[in-house]
Amino acid sequence: MSSDTKQSGKLIYQTLFEQGPIATLLVNQSGKIDLANHHAASLFGYSNRELTGVDLSLLLPSQNQTVLRDLIDRPSGALPNCTIETDGTALQPSLFEQGLAKAYFGRHKSGAMIPVEIGLHPVQVGTKTYIISSIVDLTGRQEIGKHAQERSDEISEFSYRTSHDLKSPLSTVGGLIDFVIEDIEQGNLTDAAEGAHKIKRITERLNHLVEDILKLTKADHINEAQAIFDFDAYLAAAIEKHEQLRTEYGVELRGNFMHRKPLMTQTTRLSQVLDNLVSNAIKYSDQSKQDRFVSVRTFTDASTFYIQVEDNGIGIPKQQHAEVFSMFKRFHTDALAVEGSGLGLYMIKKHVTKIDAQISFESTAEGTTFYLELPLAAVQAPAECAA
Amino acid sequence: MSGVKNVFFVDDDEAFLYVVERTCKAIDSVGRLDIAVNGQIALDMLNHWLEENTPLPDMIFVDINMPCMDGFEFLEQFKRMREQTSALKSIIPIVMLTSSQHEEDKQRAFQTQVVNEFVIKPSNVAEMEYVIRHQTEWQADISNAV
Q1: Total CB pairs under 8 A between chain A and B
Q2: Which of A15, A83, A134, A312 has the fewest CB atoms within 10 Å distance of its CB?
Q3: Dist CA A295 CA A281 (whole Å)
Q4: Assign residue A305 a region: left if phi > 0, alpha if psi is -120 to 50, beta otherwise?
């Protein structure tokens, strides 16, 4: 083999190691790193040079060193391909091949612990044994797993409650229809009309529930560009949209917009948040009070846009405060004709998360105020807008 | 069968209670019908009857999903109340009457050790009548025999 060919081959292997898509370390019998490729250095926040010659314990927590040391110290023929589990035990190769390896933690230069999967492969070079260690960053996988679990739990809860909340009124309608038929046959038309009205209200409630379910399923998928939210236009539209409800419950909808900077946000999501808060406030207004109101207020400081939706309604019972943003929660028995689906505040929370906002509330028997805080992006303040 | 039974329904569905009320009127074995729209109100009513020496219901039908206090919380509270109140020592049969067909709910109901039956809400009057008649005549008789 010519010297050029040898040189070329060496270069190829070096490039393969250096630029390989997986973080790889070559560890010698003393447990020190002889070589670290670009991905490995980058994963742990070092340069390749910084990692060369240092002990592997720099990157791996000490409690698992004995396992690694044991593997390194074994005669080369006795070393299996294996991965290390969180508890420090080495998995059998067959399990590794099945992808059953669990997360292990590596230590970043910053001190942060990174979930990783570590593969160990022994190699014999002359009389020396080395361990080639491949390291896969599991951060993304863990987040995906966590997210998938959250969604799975959410879907289970959702299907449990929707099946109940859809089935229950349908059962009642079955009974009501029997009585309406009986009343008509016996000529009791007043009773028949009463039964028919009850059926009508139930179907309206079911329709409302189905609409909310559809909105909720879409809530994850609204993908709109940010735009300046026009609060004056929103208030005018909301007054019109909730006119029937406002008239029925005798509630005034007010706006007091004091913000000095415009709000760039996903306007559809924010509109849905405000609509839900406003309609809840109207529905749970306190009929014993003379002046019933819902007030939407805004103001800003250097970094935050604040929105408050305040009402002087009946308030949320204190023992229910922890569950306010849960799915299918209703807090009042005497809520009237337009009964809520119990999905409104859950949907609000979903939208609020999507627009990077924070939501909190205070509620007493005197009324409720919801507080929304939205970050003002540095790029979004071209000029002060008219309050 | 031993005479007329007083029944107590704990359910927040106003239309369902209307069906219950009309059905009960047609059943001779049902005497007084009381209604509470959530678990807390039901407990308050039971306490009130105990204080006033008003005859207690012969059986209780309770739903699961209700605002303020749901059926499971009511069962737990009722169990505690029964342990502390001598007048409640004679067993009042409780039927969980719900739209839930989830096995977990059924298991949870029986784990409270105060539920005698777990029944799916009927979808027509004939079924409703059967459930109320059957439960009042059968369950209440069992409790009398205890």
Answers
A1: 76
A2: A15
A3: 9
A4: beta
pLDDT of residue A185: 96
Q: Which residues of B touch A330 (CB under 8 A)?
A: 67
Question: Looking at CA atoms only, how far is residue A342 from chain B in angstroms?
Answer: 10
Mean pLDDT, chain A, as a whole number?
Answer: 80
- Under an 8 A CB cutoff, do B67 and A331 touch? yes
| pLDDT digit string, tens, across residues A261-301 | 999 998 888 998 999 899 889 988 989 988 999 999 999 99
Model confidence band, residue A330 (pLDDT cutoffs 50, 70, 90) = low
Chain A contact for B66, CB < 8 A?
yes
Interface predicted TM-score (ipTM): 0.81
Structure token digits, residue A322: 């922890």
Task: Return the bridge partners of A33, or none.
Answer: A27
Subunit contact B19:A169, Cβ cutoff 8 A: no
Contacts of B13 in chain A (CB under 8 A): 168-169, 172
Please state the rounded mean pLDDT for residues A295-313: 94
Closest-CA residue to A334 (of B112, B37, B119) = B37
Mutant choice from A168, A200, A332 vs B, greatest count of B C-beta within 10 A: A168
- Minimal CA separation from A365 to chain B, in Å: 15
- What pTM value is reported for the model? 0.60
The answer to whether the CB atoms of B99 and A167 lie below 8 A apart is yes
Nearest CA in chain A to B18: A176
Contact criterion met (CB below 8 Å) for B109 and B60: no
Instruction: State the smallest CA–CA distance between residue B146 and chain A in angstroms.
Output: 34
Tell if the CB–CB gap between A176 and B18 is shorter than 8 Å.
Answer: yes
Task: Note the pLDDT of residue B47.
Answer: 92
pLDDT, mean of residues A180-199? 95
Tell me how far the alpha carbon of residue B146 is from its chain's centroid.
18
Cβ atoms of residues A376 and A322 within 8 Å? no
**Subunit contact A333:B102, Cβ cutoff 8 A:** no
What pLDDT, in 10s, does the model give residues B98-135? Answer: 988 888 899 999 999 889 889 999 888 888 888 888 88
- Which contacts (CB < 8 Å, 24+ apart) does range A198-205 have? A198/B14, A198/B15, A198/B18, A199/A173, A199/B15, A201/A337, A201/B15, A202/A169, A202/A172, A202/A173, A202/A176, A202/B15, A203/A173, A204/A338, A205/A169, A205/A338, A205/A339, A205/A341
d(CA A340, CA A220): 21
pLDDT at A103 over 50: no
